[in-house]
Amino acid sequence: MFHVGQQAIRVNDRMCLLLVGVVWGLLVRAQSPSARGRLPAISLSYFDAIISGEPNMFVILWQFDIAEEKVSAFEEAYGPTASWARLFGRSSEYLGTELLRDAYVPGRFVTVDRWENEEAFRAFRATHDADYEALDRACDSLVAAESRIGAFVVA
Fold first, then answer.
1. Among the listed residues 123, 128, 122, 98, the one whose alpha carbon sits nearest the alpha carbon of residue 110
2. CATH domain 2-153 topology
3. Residues facing 82 on adjacent strands
4. What is the pLDDT of residue 54?
5. In degrees, to the nearest 5, what angle opens at C-alpha 67 toward C-alphas 130 and 39?
6. pLDDT tens by residue, 88-103
């Protein structure tokens, strides 16, 4: 509960997480030239999974090394509202993507793709494999090195 003037406002956990997510998303995206002016894409399913302690959330991590002159194009393809996220968004069980830039190694990025569960990701791949492979090939020229860190479930 918090107070605005004399009025007390009760806020539940879900509302708090949504507000934190929106503010965080706006702050992070303000740093990305490709995402300026756009509201963050926030999935309520993601917050529901956090609140409920959903143990099956499936998270896939990839590491990329990108040449300096290709960073902008890479962000346009791999950012949280970019080409890959739009493709994944064809599934209602896709929870979102984060793009992390290494603080110490120039041109190094990590993507964090979240799904409700592993079955959701596998179903997406089965249904959209041709589009997935086509986008992967289209993005090959942006990437100097790529490695799958792993696929994880939330403990």
1. 98
2. Alpha-Beta Plaits (3.30.70)
3. none
4. 55
5. 65
6. 999 999 999 999 999 9
Element (H, E) at 13: helix 13-30
Domain ranges of the chain: 2-153
Q: Round to whole Å and give the CA distance between 78 and 81.
A: 8
pLDDT tens figures, 7-21: 555 554 444 444 445
Residue 61 token pair: 């991590």
* Residues 118 and 150: beta-carbon distance below 8 Å: no
C-alpha–C-alpha distance, residues 21 and 25, integer Å: 6
Best CA proximity match to 45, nearest among 88, 74, 10: 88
Sheet containing strand 108-115, edge to edge, reads 94-101, 108-115, 58-65, 145-153
Residues near 151 by Cβ (< 8 Å), separated by ≥ 6?
A: 58, 59, 60, 61, 118
Residue 14, sorted as left (phi over 0), alpha (psi -120 to 50) or beta, turns out to be alpha
153 backbone dihedrals φ, ψ, rounded to 5°:
-115, 150
